[in-house]
Write a structure and sequence with these properties.
The protein has 13 helices and 7 strands. The protein is of the alpha/beta class and 345 residues long. A 5-stranded mixed sheet has the order 3-2-1-4-5. Strand 6 and strand 7 form a beta hairpin. Helix 11 (287-298) packs antiparallel against helix 12 (303-324). The longest helix is centred in the middle third of the chain and has 31 residues, at 132-162. The radius of gyration is 25 Å and the shape is globular.
Length: 345
């Protein structure tokens, strides 16, 4: 993709969005001041007319916005359908590109997003909508997480009520009934997730490969399918570990600051939690990982560090089986390339 002539920044709100247009001549400058539009599908044609009125066509511009979930989804879909190149960037990444000085408002944010698109245009990944079935699976997984969190809250409240000296049967019964209803909803969601995956041949093939890996069941496989199908290609285990938030980073400076490398815990929390639970399970029940876990703990490694290592190994195996379109082979052993060459000679 050649460097575009115009760089458009969009700051998304729930009911409106603000857009500005920048260009680099002798220096970077905003040539069209920020203007606000209604964030409704029926009003998006007005925004397209505004772009065209200032000479912006799909061939000479790039449009950048921050990832704001459902608030920017309709606009991104509309612009892609109109063939405009759209980049949806993490808000934290945009914020870190600028010094935290001056006022903060929608027009200011819009100018910064446009400038960010100009400065990092060669790193922008163009956004594309997910397939309908993947979007449904993602929505079902998000709904399940919400119901699980609500059920946990009711469990905790019921546990506290049962420890009170003065008991209130009506409130306890209502909590118990709500817990039963939420449990039923969770089972329905899981059944629908499984049905959608099994009805699609490609997703079912990925699911069969993933669930052949020790510790990987329906929920972890479904989350991995959504992430792998949505991630920019090629998707390596290392980049995926960084995205999920289980990749340790060094934190040291000079001779006085030196912290133990830790993960930053950015990325999707549900997938990170499921990877931790899977690593905990196979560390207890899978003989290979059980031996590895015990050996590392005896060497003095922290238990959480060892479990994080297992999660990274698990992630690597899942990427490999999906990429190779094969099931996990329990007899497979990797060979150190450094040992292979002397053996051949």
């Amino acid at each position: 993709m050649n460097k575009p002539e115009y760089f458009v920044g969009i700051d998304i709100a729930s009911t409106t969005f603000t857009s500005a247009i920048g260009v680099f001549g002798e220096k970077w400058q905003i040539v069209v001041k920020p203007e606000t539009f209604e964030n409704e599908y029926d009003h998006l044609e007005k925004y397209k007319t505004w772009l065209q009125a200032h000479g912006l066509m799909p061939s000479n511009c790039v449009i950048c916005m921050e990832a704001t979930g459902v608030y920017g989804e309709v606009l991104a879909h509309y612009l892609v359908v109109q063939h405009y190149p759209v980049a949806v960037e993490p808000p934290l990444k945009v914020r870190r590109a600028f010094k935290p000085a001056g006022s903060k408002s929608d027009p200011v944010d819009t100018r910064q997003i446009a400038e960010y698109a100009y400065r990092f245009w060669d790193e922008l990944v163009m956004w594309a909508p997910r397939e309908e079935i993947l979007e449904r699976v993602k929505t079902l997984l998000a709904a399940r997480e919400q119901y699980v969190a609500e059920r946990t809250g009711h469990h905790n409240a019921l546990h506290a009520l049962k420890r009170k000296v003065v008991r209130t049967d009506l409130v306890e019964q209502m909590h118990e009934k709500t817990i039963q209803e939420l449990t039923g909803h969770i089972k329905e969601l899981e059944a629908e997730i499984s049905r959608l995956i099994h009805d699609d041949p490609d997703l079912k093939a990925m699911y069969d490969s993933l669930t052949s890996v020790p510790g990987v069941k329906l929920l972890l496989a479904a989350h991995m399918i959504v992430v792998l199908q949505s991630a920019p290609q090629p998707c390596t285990p290392k980049t995926l570990a960084a995205f999920v938030g289980i990749c340790p980073y060094e934190h040291s400076s000079g001779t006085s600051i030196h912290f133990t490398p830790t993960s930053r815990h950015f990325g999707p929390p549900a997938l990170r939690k499921l990877l931790f639970l899977a690593s905990l399970s196979i560390a207890q029940h899978n003989q290979h990982f059980k031996t590895y876990y015990a050996r590392k703990v005896l060497d003095g490694k922290p238990k959480k560090l060892v479990l994080n290592n297992i999660a990274n190994k698990l992630l690597k195996v899942m990427v490999v089986v999906v990429r190779s379109k094969t099931k996990f082979n329990t007899e497979y052993r990797s060979v150190n390339p450094g040992l292979l060459k002397p053996a051949l000679t």
